[in-house]
Amino acid sequence: MEKLRKIIHIDMDAFYASVEQLDNPELQGKPVAVGGSSQRGVVSAASYEARKFGVRSAMSSVIAKRNCPDLIFVKPRFERYKEISGQIREVFFEYTDLVEPLSLDEAYLDVTENKKGLPSATLIAKQIRNRIKEKTGLNASAGISINKFIAKVASDVNKPNGQKTVPPEEVLQFLEDLDIRKFYGVGKVTAEKMYRLGIFTGKDLKLKTEEYLTEHFGKSGAHFYNVVRGIHLSEVKPHRIRKSLGAERTFNENISSEIFMLERLENIAEEIERRLNKSKVAGKTVTLKIKYSDFTQQTRSKTISYFISSKELILEIAKELLYQEKMKNSVRLLGISLSNLNTEKDDPKEEKKEISVQLKFKF
């Protein structure tokens, strides 16, 4: 019988906005959006006071202000967010070295074996949340279960400033009762497609065969088939391998001149070169991202036979991709990313295994 793991997913509550409210007491209790307030601005994060009005991350600043006239916009301070994120990770390492950061404000922890020798993952999650509050003044939520997928889903259940444990004996029922929109990885488009197929809950999903799901959702079909049965074998990886690195710019005014586009691409390529040198990585695949004024989006890619990291070579390929076909409209955003990096390794194929439930496994 495979040994079950004890996985915690920690997710900071409205992290960027909460940091701004922490540093500026005048913002506490008020609707706050981190991001630009211009016509082209986008909300990076919203406080819970703002979320009550429907303000969400990635929302246009214009729409956000329309939804919440009293919304206060604050410019992002990423260095400050990174500083506090570092303090939070120090707390994680007090309990385990098996920490896999997903972003500045969330991470997976494997506490099956932990530095405190505590048998209860639920207790560890509570202690970690308390330590984060003591150290930073910020609230965190947590999900606790037997694998990363369920822990991630569970961390949303009692937000903000709460936690949810799904012990082994409750896993299958928890997943069957779950609204399909709550499944991590099921976005708006996929959810709508599932609705059309009569899939509204985990129980509905579980009734479909793997062949049926693969036919309708491609490679994701096998993933959906497994996770609804509690099968998710991905381990907590302390050193996540970067898959790509990129940068993009949204313009204050739409641009149609290729000369202006090349100027912007040069600035973006320079930023990527700086990040590549800092991370000491290089890549073989350059991807150009173009978002038009009508919000349609295109990506064009080219892979070469050797690794590159210099601005000149990245820009040269980006130019080639830009001229690959005629622009169909004026452009509001350009981006370049480099993938197929020299940090990537082929993961061995994991053998599919059925879930083993140990009722006495203490959570």
Shape: globular
How far apart are the termini?
A: 18 Å
Cα-atom Rg, whole angstroms? 22 Å
Which architecture of the largest domain would the CATH scheme give at its second level? 2-Layer Sandwich
What does this structure look like?
- The protein is of the alpha+beta class and 363 residues long.
- The protein folds into four domains: 7-14 and 79-169, Reverse transcriptase/Diguanylate cyclase domain (Alpha-Beta Plaits, 2-Layer Sandwich), CATH 3.30.70.270; 15-78, MutS, DNA mismatch repair protein, domain I (3-Layer(aba) Sandwich), CATH 3.40.1170; 170-227, DNA polymerase, domain 1; 244-341, 2-Layer Sandwich (Dna Ligase, domain 1), CATH 3.30.1490.100.
- The chain has 13 helices and twelve strands.
- The strands form three sheets. A five-stranded mixed β-sheet has the order 5-6-1-7-8.
- Helix 12 (258-279) runs antiparallel to helix 13.
- The protein is globular and about 60 Å long.
- The two termini are 18 Å apart.
Task: Please write out the topology.
Elements: E1 7-12, H1 15-23, E2 32-35, E3 43-46, H2 48-51, H3 61-67, E4 72-74, H4 78-93, E5 99-103, E6 106-110, H5 121-136, E7 140-145, H6 148-154, E8 163-165, H7 171-177, H8 188-196, H9 202-206, H10 210-217, H11 219-227, E9 244-255, H12 258-279, E10 283-292, E11 297-308, H13 311-322, E12 331-341
Parallel strand pairs: 2-4, 7-8
Antiparallel strand pairs: 1-6, 1-7, 2-3, 5-6, 9-12, 10-11, 10-12
